[in-house]
Amino acid sequence: PKDSAFAMRDTVGASLLAMLLIGLVVLGGVAVVVGRQIGGTLERLTSRAEAIEQGNLDVDLETSRADEFGDLFVAFDSMRASLRDQISAAETARERAEEAQERAQTARADAEQARQNAVELNKQLEATAAEFGAVMAEMADGDLSQRLPTETDSDAMADIAIAYNAMVEEWAE
User: What is the pTM for the complete model shown?
Assistant: First the structure.
């Protein structure tokens, strides 16, 4: 009978419509749950990446996910470890450079002090040589009573004066 066929059609149509609606509701629920999980994971990863960007390399990047998001957490953790190593190497290099700069400054100061000492020694030697020259000029003029001073700041000049004075003593005798 027609009525029975139409009733069956309406029942099948209503059942199909109900199944479609239930499927859409279930699919929507799954989408919301999965979306929240993905969104939450992305939000956690984003906040931790921002903490790393601000210099906090101690941020926790542990995750129990074994999917692409887990791989992202592992990659960020690897990047963080690499940044730590590079920063440590840069700090070590900076400290070494500062130490080298201090050594260079000390060496420059030592070299300047040595130069000043050499200039002072040169002045002293010139003064002693001038004094020796004056005494020797008097001796050359015939005054053999003159003697070179043996009290000088230079041991070598004192040795010269002693030897010269001994030579003049022999001549005077």
Answer: 0.51
